[in-house]
From TrEMBL:
Descriptive protein name: Transcriptional regulator
Coiled coil start-end: none
PROSITE patterns: FHA_DOMAIN, SIGMA54_INTERACT_1, SIGMA54_INTERACT_4
SUPFAM superfamilies noted in UniProt: Homeodomain-like, P-loop containing nucleoside triphosphate hydrolases, SMAD/FHA domain
Recorded GO MF terms: ATP binding; DNA binding
Native source species: Sorangium cellulosum (strain So ce56)
Phylogenetic placement of the source organism: Bacteria, Pseudomonadati, Myxococcota, Polyangia, Polyangiales
Length: 455
């Protein structure tokens, strides 16, 4: 009989440990102390531990009051992090309902009609870190990214379906492209389908193709994305946006590896690899009834989560220098120190995509005073901490997109005013300084009510 694993004496040892060639995570055990599954227990064997009634979870319960994917415990640098996955009946910690919390040894979790006890163990999970700071066009020197890079050679060499999760702007598409280019299918096509931008009435034809006359406007037969990707890879971008009525049809394709064009009965065999990306947690979407659980299981063969930029601050300087070299043609190839200092203090809700846009704006501001005033704000102009546009009270009731558009408009107005002032009000000089077409600059100035002379 195997000996019982030793319990950690304190939560301090629960932290993630980064070593030169590997990353180590503490293991933990979850035991059901009350409920239909009392006595059951499971020990973690990965950095995520999902509890629920669905197959594929690390701890599978029969409690009918528990959701398919009820909650998840993750090992993070700050400790063991519990997060409810939008479960129907919620998760409690020591009797209080919580959305997310860090766990201490002996913590009692309530889910459904069951009580679970959490205990960290004196054992570790070790995973190799990649030696390089890039994989394909994806950059990163942080442990979080090197952990992904360490796993990618094995993933790329296989033909398994891959699900890549991460917030908007984290580089999920680039990572998918890097997997394809490092795979045996690199010589084949890489076809991207944006599931969120195709009208629901057209998505079936886009994916599967159609025969001539299959519907109004189908004047000729056309191959769909799956056929076009024969011998290569299909990227299903933002998979969480796929309409519910299309999901069983896609599931059938993934299982049978064949499609039927609209208007035909003859199947076409497929030779493709599928990679899917999503900015949503599909487990939560399954709980909400927005995503089919069987499709999720079929996609979730290999799962990668790309961390948000705020979770990998070690990469900000590397990415800033990379983008600066790309964009600063003919200028000093090193980003100014004040630029790096400003960027290191920001949270980057738009992630790497937002960072690249910020570097591009900074490159356009050749004059240091212009940079400080337009990007860092009035405090930055005095040498203090950089200031970001703060949301106004009337914007807090808007959607994120609308509030962001208003903030960008305010930034543009500030930038244009400083640009014109720095160039003595001369439109032509301002356009050259900003490397912008003169007519486009004139349109922006008119839109924001900023005046400049035409000379």
């Amino acid at each position: 009989m195997a000996s019982e694993p030793k319990i950690h004496p304190s939560a301090e040892t629960a932290l993630l440990k980064v070593r030169s060639k590997e990353i180590a995570f503490s293991r933990f055990r979850v035991q059901v102390t009350a409920g239909p599954d009392a006595g059951a227990s499971q020990t973690s064997d990965a950095t995520e531990f999902v509890i629920g009634t669905a197959p594929g979870n690390q701890l599978i319960l029969t409690d009918r009051a528990v959701s398919r994917h009820h909650c998840v415990i993750s090992v993070t640098p700050r400790g063991f992090f519990l997060r409810d996955l939008g479960s129907k009946n919620g998760t409690t910690l020591s009797g209080f309902r919580v959305e997310a919390a860090y766990l201490l040894p002996g913590a009692l979790l309530g889910i459904g009609q069951s009580t679970l006890r959490f205990e960290p163990l004196a054992e570790e999970i070790r995973e190799p870190l990649g030696d390089e700071e890039r994989y394909g066009r994806v950059l990163g020197q942080s442990a979080a990214m090197r952990r992904i890079f360490g796993a990618l050679p094995r993933i790329a060499a296989s033909d398994s379906t891959v699900l890549i999760e991460g917030e908007t702007g984290t580089g999920k598409g680039l990572l998918a492209e890097a997997i394809h280019e490092s795979s045996p299918r690199a010589g084949g096509p890489f076809v991207v389908i944006d599931c969120g931008s195709i009208p629901p009435t057209l998505i079936e034809a886009e994916l599967f193709g159609h025969a001539k006359g299959a519907f109004t406007g189908a004047q000729a037969a056309r191959a769909g994305a799956f056929e076009a990707a024969r011998g290569g890879t299909v990227l299903l971008d933002e998979m969480g946006e796929l309409p519910l009525d299309m999901q069983p049809k896609l599931l059938r394709v993934l299982e049978e590896r064949q499609i039927r064009r609209i208007g035909t009965i003859e199947p076409t065999k497929l030779d493709i690899r599928v990679i899917a990306t999503t900015n949503r947690d599909l487990r939560q979407e399954v709980n909400r009834g927005n995503f089919r659980s069987d499709l999720y299981y079929r996609l979730n063969i290999v799962r990668l989560r790309v961390p948000a930029l705020r979770e990998r601050p070690d990469d900000i300087a590397l990415l800033t220098a990379h983008f600066y070299r790309q964009l600063a043609q003919g200028q000093d190839q090193s980003p100014p120190g004040e630029l790096l200092e400003a960027f290191m203090r920001q949270d980057w809700p738009g992630n790497v995509r937002e960072l690249r846009g910020a570097v591009e704006r900074a490159v356009l501001m050749i004059d240091p005073a212009l940079f400080r005033e337009a990007v860092m704000g009035s405090e930055g102009a005095d040498g203090g901490a950089p200031a970001l546009p703060a949301p106004r009270d009337d914007e807090l009731s808007l959607s994120f997109r609308e509030a962001k558009e208003r903030a960008v408009a305010r930034w543009e107005r500030t930038f244009l005013t400083a640009l014109v002032r720095a160039n003595g009000g001369n439109l032509s000089r301002a356009a050259r300084a900003a490397r912008m077409d003169r007519s486009h600059l004139r349109e922006l100035l008119q839109r924001h009510g900023v005046s400049a002379t035409e000379a």
